């Protein structure tokens, strides 16, 4: 699934305003537009498919019931929904007493890797994507969550930090550690370009 573009974000703000004014159509359109990103986030968070589906719909029912109390001046609807959904997932896991402890975060600094030019066939991209999908599942849940929010939800490090209740540097550390681990498992020294290409298969 494609990440949200600036045009989509602008449309979201218009729909949000209409939803707050009581438009069922706008409410349903927002649900349809954000269902998959929220549903997949639930799966990455350790929630099974049925519960993730239910949590998405429960969230939007809660939003509808409480729309008169919601903020009318959002900067980013997608970020707001992800944060609200994450809070719901945490409550869901706490209710079942399955909330996992956070992984210890390293203090290494994120080093920028120069962009690389890749001339890769579609079959090679698919192969790399499937291979990376398997490697990503070996990462700690906290690192998987950071990668999901950064590369799929298209959030900035600052937004990821706010959503995960971390310092911004800690998010950079998580991403750095995860990418270093992936490169080590892959067995080659490669930059971010390969992961950006292959991640779409894991996140689809």
Summarize this entry quickly:
This protein is mainly alpha-helical and 204 residues long.
Outline the structure in words.
This protein has 204 residues and is mainly α. The chain folds into 2 domains: 6-95, Rna Polymerase Sigma Factor, Chain: A (Orthogonal Bundle); 122-203, Arc Repressor Mutant, subunit A. The chain is 68% helix and 0% strand. It is built from 9 helices and no strands. The protein is elongated and about 55 Å long. Residues 132-182 form the RNA polymerase sigma factor 70 region 4 type domain. Residues 31-94 form the RNA polymerase sigma-70 region domain. It comes from Spirosoma montaniterrae. This is RNA polymerase subunit sigma-24.
Overall CATH class of the largest domain = Mainly Alpha
Flag low-confidence runs: 1-7, 98-120, 188-193
Share of residues in strands:
under 5%
**Total helix count?**
9
Distance between the termini: 5 Å
CATH fold-level label of the largest domain: Rna Polymerase Sigma Factor, Chain: A
CATH-wise, what's the superfamily of the largest domain? RNA polymerase sigma factor, region 2, helix turn helix motif
* Assigned CATH architecture of the largest domain: Orthogonal Bundle
Question: Could you tell me the radius of gyration in angstroms?
Answer: 18 Å
Helix percent reads: 55-70%
Domain RNA polymerase sigma factor 70 region 4 type: 132-182
Family: Belongs to the sigma-70 factor family. ECF subfamily.
GO molecular function: DNA binding; sigma factor activity
Pfam family, one: Sigma70_r2
């Amino acid at each position: 699934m494609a990440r949200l573009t600036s045009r989509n974000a602008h449309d979201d703000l218009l729909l949000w305003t209409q939803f707050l004014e009581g438009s069922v159509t706008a409410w349903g359109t927002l649900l349809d537009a954000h269902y998959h990103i929220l549903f997949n986030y639930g799966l990455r968070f350790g929630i099974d498919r049925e519960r993730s589906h239910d949590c998405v719909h429960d969230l939007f029912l809660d939003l509808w019931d409480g729309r008169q109390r919601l903020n009318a001046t959002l900067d980013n609807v997608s970020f707001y929904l992800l944060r609200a959904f994450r809070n719901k997932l945490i409550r869901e896991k706490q209710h079942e007493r399955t909330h996992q402890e956070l992984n210890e975060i390293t203090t290494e600094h994120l080093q920028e890797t120069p962009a690389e030019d890749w001339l890769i066939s579609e079959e090679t991209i698919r192969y790399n994507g499937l291979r990376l999908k398997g490697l990503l599942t070996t990462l700690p849940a906290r690192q998987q969550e950071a990668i999901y929010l950064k590369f799929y939800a298209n959030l900035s490090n600052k937004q990821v930090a706010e959503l995960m209740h971390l310092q911004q540097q800690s998010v950079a550390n998580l991403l750095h550690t995860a990418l270093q681990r992936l490169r080590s498992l892959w067995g080659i020294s490669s930059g971010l370009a390969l992961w950006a290409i292959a991640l779409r298969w894991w996140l689809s």
